[in-house]
TrEMBL record, chain A:
Chemical reaction(s) catalysed: tungstate(in) + ATP + H2O = tungstate(out) + ADP + phosphate + H(+)
ABC transporter domain boundaries: 2-236
Pfam annotation, one family: ABC_tran
GO cellular component, one term: plasma membrane
Protein name in the entry: Molybdate/tungstate import ATP-binding protein WtpC
Main location: membrane
Quaternary data: The complex is composed of two ATP-binding proteins (WtpC), two transmembrane proteins (WtpB) and a solute-binding protein (WtpA).
Organism expressing this protein natively: Halobellus clavatus
Family: Belongs to the ABC transporter superfamily. Sulfate/tungstate importer (TC 3.A.1.6) family.
Subcellular location: Cell membrane
Coiled coil: none
InterPro entries: AAA+_ATPase, ABC_transporter-like_ATP-bd, ABC_transporter-like_CS, CBS_dom_sf, P-loop_NTPase
From TrEMBL, chain B:
PROSITE patterns to which the protein is assigned, alphabetical: ABC_TM1
Subcellular locations according to the entry: Cell membrane; Membrane
CDD domains: TM_PBP2
Entry-linked Gene3D superfamilies: MetI-like (1.10.3720.10)
UniProt KW keywords: Membrane, Transmembrane, Transmembrane helix, Transport
UniProt protein name: Osmoprotectant transport system permease protein
């Protein structure tokens, strides 16, 4: 369990990174800190394992004021995935993962077993064990960062944008995998991201940060249905448009075919261009809009079973959202 | 071009004709270089580690180090004479001082250049300051430290020619007296063997470096 009680952090240069924040991460749950860049997310995280000390207030770790705990012991008991991954380039993947078990003095066979287990958990084949981090892809490096943090079975895990700097598809995969892992390990997790989508997906609870302050601390459902103020509304609102795009089918927005018979020339050629220049009515608006933007024509035929069933234009998408009462 | 080749050939002939003396001079040269280099490394590296830890020491050492490297080696050799007289000792001390700086500067720069994120990760995982130094900082700085050692050694081979001026012996005997007597084959014999020595020592150090199995930032050359 992690508790922040009226915690303020002012850096030596006078920067007030966080100002009197309160929240509790219950045991075995995931709390996501989300907010714009520079709002104090990383700082909050560093206060837990005492990479930074609070100026005022108290951070409790498993019920104890962490100022009373030995720094080194405290850190060895907390898994930490840093924002820049921070793998040790001079050590192999196996040695990287084994860092904390080695520091706390596990015997070699136990370490070996644990490394194998973690590679499997993170869906990496055993041959990666002896490779060096620089030989790996971004996604693989992130996985190893996570495996390394999990190595000594910490009961608290701090993850600072662990899936940042990844392409959306790899990120989505890692998120899904991590959700499964999360079910299996009963770990208290503090997770930082600047993406509200990731927060909604990963968190049991979400703390929305504005510069230095927690503006709302609630479950994802509560945040979506009852945003506390305009800042929260804006924060989720912008992204809601995108989410709505991805769940609305083209069928709901398209025009019927007659409307365009006179404007034939403006329509993207569906026949010879093949599938690329048309779209199925069951595709999402997100796909439709992407395709519209990538072609030279302003109108995209909607094709179902080889027959043109409608047309989609940018204006349709726009007016659909206007009438849906966007903020 | 043809002149260069014939002079080199006559240099090699001179060397073969005076083989016993060559071995003698080469041995003197090698002892001077190796002894001063080893002592320089064993002082510069720990000193660099200490300096890198103390913000207040670091910049004065770095600036003194960088300025001192612009002092011509001949000046240091000349300076040794009134203090320590003639022979092996003053030559050794002069070479030691001259070899110290590149290693010191590169040790500090190397330790400093280790990525902050990496250090943060090590800290966050509960490594003590000593563990961070021995397990993370030092191994990652090793390629840069080695670059300093190699630079220093190669320069040292060249500087050791000047030891002849203060009676330190070495291949300078052939080159310097050869210049005075305008004996070109003798100059070439001395110069070529020094060049071969420098290249051999550099290759040897490269081999040692790869044996140490570093895989840090690919052979970054900093502050030669
Ligand atoms: N060591 C430091 N010294 C002084 N100011 C700092 C220090 N670290 C962070 N800050 C400042 O504190 C504020 C909060 O920084 P922090 O790194 O916690 O933000 P963040 O929410 O993690 O941002 P990001 O999303 O960009 O990672 C920023 O204004 C930052 O410039
Ligand atoms: Mg951050």
């Amino acid at each position: 369990m992690i508790e922040f009680e009226d915690v303020t952090k002012v850096y030596a240069d006078g920067t007030e990174a966080i100002d009197g924040i309160n929240f509790t991460v219950e045991e075995g749950t995931t709390t996501v800190l989300v907010g714009p860049s520079g709002c104090g997310k990383t700082t909050s995280m560093k206060l837990v394992n005492r990479l930074e000390e609070p100026t005022e207030g108290t951070v409790y770790v498993n019920g104890t004021d962490n100022q009373e705990l030995d720094k080194i012991d405290l850190r060895r008991g907390i898994g930490y995935v840093i924002q820049e991954i921070g793998l040790f380039d001079h050590l192999t993947v196996g040695e990287n993962i084994a860092t904390v078990p080695e520091l706390v003095g596990w015997d070699q066979s136990r370490i070996d077993d644990r490394v194998d287990e973690l590679l499997e958990l993170m869906d990496l084949s055993p041959e990666y064990r002896d490779q060096y981090p620089r030989e790996l892809s971004g996604g693989q490096r992130q996985r190893i960062g996570v495996a390394r943090a999990l190595a000594a079975d910490p009961d608290i895990l701090l993850m600072d944008e662990p899936f940042g700097a990844l392409d959306p598809i790899t990120r989505e995969n890692l998120q899904d995998e991590f959700l499964q892992i999360q079910d299996r390990i009963n770990t208290t997790i503090l997770f930082v991201t600047h993406s509200i989508d990731e927060a909604l997906k990963m968190g049991d609870r979400i703390a929305i940060f504005d510069v230095g302050e927690v503006v709302q601390y609630d479950t994802p459902a509560e945040i979506l249905s009852n945003p506390k103020n305009e800042f929260v509304e804006n924060f989720i609102g912008e992204n809601q448009t995108f989410k709505q795009l991805s769940i609305t089918p083209v069928r709901e927005v398209m025009d019927d075919p007659q409307a365009y018979e006179s404007a034939e020339s403006e329509v993207a050629p569906a026949a010879d261009g093949g599938e690329y220049y048309s779209i199925s009515p069951d595709s999402s608006l997100q796909v439709g809009l992407t395709r519209l933007l990538s072609i030279e024509h302003t109108t995209l035929p909607v094709v179902d079973g080889g027959e043109v069933v409608g047309f989609l234009t940018e204006d349709h998408v726009r007016s659909y959202f206007d009438s849906a009462g966007e903020p | 071009m043809a002149g260069v080749i014939s002079t080199s050939l006559s240099g090699i002939r001179y060397l073969l004709d005076n083989l016993p003396e060559f071995w003698q001079l080469l041995a003197e040269h090698l002892v001077l270089v190796v002894a001063s280099e080893i002592i320089a490394i064993s002082i510069a590296v720990p000193l660099g580690v200490i300096a890198a830890r103390h913000e207040k020491l670091k910049s004065p050492i770095l600036s003194v180090g960088n300025v001192a490297q612009t002092v011509p080696p001949l000046a240091i050799i000349a300076l040794m004479f009134p203090i320590l007289g003639l022979g092996f000792l003053p030559s050794f001390v002069a070479l030691f001082i001259y070899a110290l700086l590149p290693v010191l500067v590169n040790t500090i720069t190397g330790l400093e250049s280790v990525d902050e994120g990496t250090i943060d990760a090590a800290k966050g995982m509960g490594m003590t300051q000593n563990e961070r130094l021995t397990k993370i900082r030092f191994p990652l700085a090793l390629p840069i430290i080695f670059a300093g050692i190699r630079t220093s050694t190669v320069i040292n081979v060249g500087t050791a020619y000047l030891a002849f001026f203060i009676g330190g012996g070495g291949l300078g005997a052939w080159v310097i007296s050869g210049i005075n007597l305008f004996n070109m084959p003798q100059v070439f014999a001395g110069a070529i063997s020094g060049a071969v020595l420098a290249i051999s020592l550099d290759l040897l150090l490269a081999a040692v470096e790869s044996r140490l199995g570093n895989s840090g930032p690919a052979s970054a050359q900093v502050a030669a």
